[in-house]
Amino acid sequence: MARLRDITPRGLYARSLLMVVAPVVLILALMTWYYYDSHLAEVNRKLAQAIARDAAQIQSFCDARPDTLFTKEKLQRDLDMTFTCDYADPADGSPRLIHSFAYGKTLTEELTIRLGVPVDVSVDPRTMLHFRFPSGSGTAEILIERKRALVVNSHFFIVWVIASSLLMLALAVAFLNQQVRSILRLSEAARAFGRGRDAPGFRPSGATEVRDAARALLDMKSRLTAFADQRSAMLAGVSHDLRTPLTRLKLSLAMMEQSEDLAAAQSDLDDMAMMLDEYLTFARGEEGDEPMALDLAELVREAAAGFGAHVPVVGPTSISATGRPLALKRAINNLISNAVKYATDVRVTVLDGPHAAEVHVDDNGPGIAPERREEAFRPFSRLDEARTQNTSGTGLGLTLARDTARAHGGDLRLSDSVLGGLRASLRLPH
């Protein structure tokens, strides 16, 4: 099943419309087929049988040839039919009769079976049916209204069914259009929130369930925003407060007589100061870094340029994206810095896909075992492998980089590099 984010609004609307139109058209087609092929045909056959029974009485009268005029008039009145036992071909110029019409074959069959002689059935422009059959030495003719023998206005039923179906379909499409628009707005808002952007003008709308989902999304967004702001404020506050005692410790150690133990302590304090600087830089970067249109390829080249010419960047010269530039640049810096620490050959590759752009940072270092790669994303994680021996750092580089990628709706994953070491792949949806 296709993911919702891979379906365009027009595609989702067309698919939903098809789900409504297709069953209606199918039901209408089946109902029409049944009505014409089964029900209507049976009704016309029953009418034809009734007419054939009345025609049989006229046949008996014409075969007997009584001379009483009263008997003929009474029979015509009782059967509501006009007939003659001695039919003569009309003169030229009389209305042309039609021998082929709807359900004429059914009527002819029933009359032939009932009367036992060949019957010629035709209709004139006045929609009067003419039945002619041999009678004695001549030919008899019966005239009745067509609507008495056949259901001739059946198309009205189909017209009314189609009209009512179209009305119901229009109402369904209008309702569906409103609901699909609400779902699409909810999807766009969720996608924007997932990428760290706001959705101005978004408000719950549509069916009750869609409005409940929209309210839950807004509540979740406000909670996550408050949590992120609280985390950044706490990190900035703690880092700032720790700088004062750390500075006093550094001054105290500087006034002591130098020794190996003192040098080790000063090195530890320098590492702590570096960590606090990174925390403060991260916290300050979180503030005021709003999503905006940016050139991802240019941003990657700027980040790689800080590490010198020995970190080449391969890929397109320009990739349009939307995101928080400071956070993305910091994440890419962390990935490149992590690779430079443990390898001699580092290469950055930028790819522009149909749905997302990717940044691959490859190195020829010792790498990380597949079963321990998820552990590398844990905060303050220090893997006891060759990649972490005799190196300094906070242990937050990969953690913050993946947080940044996921905040933009993407992700960060580790895999084997074509250079023989580790590959860090940052994915950023367009």
Automatic annotation (TrEMBL):
Q: How does it sit in the membrane?
A: Multi-pass membrane protein
Q: Which residue intervals define the domain Histidine kinase in the entry?
A: 237-430
Q: Which SMART domains match?
A: HATPase_c, HisKA
> What are the TM regions of this chain, as residue ranges?
12-36, 157-176
For the HAMP domain, which residue ranges apply? 177-229
Cite the GO molecular-function annotations of the record. ATP binding; phosphorelay sensor kinase activity
CDD domains assigned to the protein according to its UniProt record, in alphabetical order: HATPase, HisKA
**EC top class, as a word:** transferase
Main localization of the protein?
membrane
Catalytic activities: ATP + protein L-histidine = ADP + protein N-phospho-L-histidine
Q: What is its EC number?
A: 2.7.13.3
Q: Which Gene3D superfamilies match?
A: 1.10.287.130, Histidine kinase-like ATPase, C-terminal domain
Write the record's keywords in alphabetical order, separated by commas: ATP-binding, Cell inner membrane, Cell membrane, Kinase, Membrane, Nucleotide-binding, Phosphoprotein, Transferase, Transmembrane, Transmembrane helix, Two-component regulatory system
Q: Which GO CC annotations does the UniProt entry carry?
A: plasma membrane
Compartments annotated for it: namely:
Cell inner membrane
UniProt protein name: histidine kinase
This chain's source organism reads: Hyphomonas oceanitis SCH89
